[in-house]
Predict the 3D structure of the following.
Amino acid sequence: MIYASAPGKLNLFFEVGALRADGYHPVISIYQSLAIRQRVGVEASDRWEVSTTGNLPKQQLDRVPTDESNLCVIAAKELAKYVGMQSVQPMKFFTHKEVPVAAGLAGGSADAAASLLALNQAWNLGLDFQQLTEVASKVGSDVPFSLLGGTALGLDTGIQLQKLENLPLQHVVLLVSPIGLSTREVFLAFDQMFPAGDINQSAEMVVAGIGAMQRVGKNSLLQPALSLREELKEYQHLIEGTTGYLSGSGPTIYFITEDKDQATAWNQKLSSLGHFTIMTTTSPTGALLG
Ligand code: ATP
């Protein structure tokens, strides 16, 4: 069995432009990878199959498809197409999840990125990072970043990446809603609310601010997400003196600080209120074999 892993992510900043003719939205995204990771093992099989384990509530794990609609399989097929494979060997994927499902934390994208890396080895393809990134961009907007990791600016739909200097280590408390939020539905609500898009600054301005941890937390999808899940507003303000931010299309609300003790106190408070939380840190590490 060959293993690879890839990180979950936050969007430290996320502005979304108007819907394009191709059905996608342009974005200005500041991606940040987290220490929580997805691990994927691959081996040849007589059919495509995905099994999922992980330290997450069962209702989360049950939402992950076991068949060919799983992003691991979609990534495998894109990889086979990219290298012009005639007959594709079906594979079994063993995924171990630390990243919550349908949470705006790129859990599925991390599975796809780890799968690409593991299959590159299992199928002896010898693709380099640039080539794997090309395949990744056909699988999903967040998959190239799941390969890269660290702190990065994402333009176009998020697939055009520019690596940024790593930020000082941050402690992060994720408040994970029991019910996921469909990315598609949040973007549909966005289109209703912002037909002309919501990009208000240049990428250069955003990058300049983020180095000093300024502009952190802006997210064009917040209002659309709140229109679908009004309790998120209350979640944002559960910690006195700070605000939780939405990651991606949500519904995860994250609280971020350089102070570990403060994060521990926040985590205890949220857990004592009965919320499912994950305490983690930012991490500079992208996808890795092993
Ligand atoms: P992103 O931030 O990349 O938009 P997300 O973190 O919001 O993604 P995912 O965890 O990737 O959301 O899951 C979104 C949906 O994709 C799930 O509800 C599930 O039906 C489907 N899915 C397909 N493959 C996977 C996978 N390997 N892991 C999780 N979900 C998957």
